[in-house]
Specification:
single chain; alpha+beta; Translation Initiation Factor IF3; 2 helices
Amino acid sequence: MPHFDQTLDVKGAKCPMPLVKSRKAITELPVGKVLQVISTDRGSVADFQGWAKTAKNVELIAQETVQENGQELYVHYLRRTA
Protein backbone atom coordinates (compact mmCIF):
# COMPACT_ATOMS: atom_id res chain seq x y z
CA MET A 1 0.00 0.00 0.00
CA PRO A 2 1.52 3.31 -1.06
CA HIS A 3 1.79 6.27 1.28
CA PHE A 4 -1.15 8.63 0.89
CA ASP A 5 -1.99 12.06 2.24
CA GLN A 6 -5.77 12.13 2.04
CA THR A 7 -8.61 9.60 1.70
CA LEU A 8 -11.76 10.01 -0.35
CA ASP A 9 -14.49 7.51 0.54
CA VAL A 10 -16.92 7.07 -2.37
CA LYS A 11 -18.34 3.70 -1.26
CA GLY A 12 -21.83 3.19 -2.68
CA ALA A 13 -21.37 5.81 -5.41
CA LYS A 14 -21.98 4.56 -8.95
CA CYS A 15 -20.16 5.56 -12.12
CA PRO A 16 -19.33 8.33 -12.85
CA MET A 17 -19.51 9.77 -9.31
CA PRO A 18 -16.27 8.22 -7.93
CA LEU A 19 -14.38 9.88 -10.79
CA VAL A 20 -16.26 13.19 -10.51
CA LYS A 21 -15.57 13.44 -6.77
CA SER A 22 -11.94 12.39 -7.24
CA ARG A 23 -11.34 15.06 -9.89
CA LYS A 24 -12.59 17.70 -7.47
CA ALA A 25 -10.57 16.32 -4.53
CA ILE A 26 -7.30 16.06 -6.48
CA THR A 27 -7.43 19.75 -7.44
CA GLU A 28 -7.55 20.63 -3.73
CA LEU A 29 -4.37 18.67 -2.95
CA PRO A 30 -0.91 20.22 -3.26
CA VAL A 31 1.22 18.97 -6.16
CA GLY A 32 3.06 15.76 -5.21
CA LYS A 33 0.49 14.64 -2.65
CA VAL A 34 -1.38 11.33 -2.97
CA LEU A 35 -5.13 10.78 -2.79
CA GLN A 36 -6.46 7.37 -1.77
CA VAL A 37 -9.92 6.69 -3.23
CA ILE A 38 -12.04 3.86 -1.81
CA SER A 39 -14.85 2.70 -4.08
CA THR A 40 -17.35 -0.17 -4.25
CA ASP A 41 -17.88 0.33 -8.00
CA ARG A 42 -16.06 -2.38 -9.97
CA GLY A 43 -16.12 -0.13 -13.03
CA SER A 44 -13.99 2.43 -11.20
CA VAL A 45 -10.87 0.32 -11.88
CA ALA A 46 -11.03 0.93 -15.63
CA ASP A 47 -12.39 4.47 -15.15
CA PHE A 48 -9.38 5.54 -13.08
CA GLN A 49 -6.94 3.90 -15.51
CA GLY A 50 -8.52 5.80 -18.40
CA TRP A 51 -8.54 9.09 -16.50
CA ALA A 52 -4.88 8.76 -15.56
CA LYS A 53 -3.94 8.13 -19.21
CA THR A 54 -5.60 11.33 -20.42
CA ALA A 55 -5.28 13.70 -17.46
CA LYS A 56 -2.36 16.10 -17.33
CA ASN A 57 -2.39 16.57 -13.55
CA VAL A 58 -2.77 12.99 -12.24
CA GLU A 59 -0.64 9.87 -12.01
CA LEU A 60 -2.26 6.56 -11.02
CA ILE A 61 0.41 4.99 -8.81
CA ALA A 62 -1.45 1.89 -7.60
CA GLN A 63 -4.76 0.06 -7.48
CA GLU A 64 -5.79 -2.77 -5.20
CA THR A 65 -8.87 -4.79 -4.37
CA VAL A 66 -9.48 -5.52 -0.70
CA GLN A 67 -12.19 -7.33 1.23
CA GLU A 68 -14.04 -5.55 4.01
CA ASN A 69 -16.95 -7.25 5.77
CA GLY A 70 -17.48 -9.54 2.77
CA GLN A 71 -17.57 -6.62 0.34
CA GLU A 72 -14.99 -5.93 -2.35
CA LEU A 73 -13.46 -2.47 -2.19
CA TYR A 74 -11.50 -1.00 -5.10
CA VAL A 75 -8.75 1.26 -3.81
CA HIS A 76 -6.99 3.74 -6.09
CA TYR A 77 -3.91 5.87 -5.33
CA LEU A 78 -3.54 9.05 -7.36
CA ARG A 79 -0.66 11.52 -7.21
CA ARG A 80 -1.23 15.12 -8.24
CA THR A 81 1.51 15.98 -10.72
CA ALA A 82 0.57 19.52 -11.76
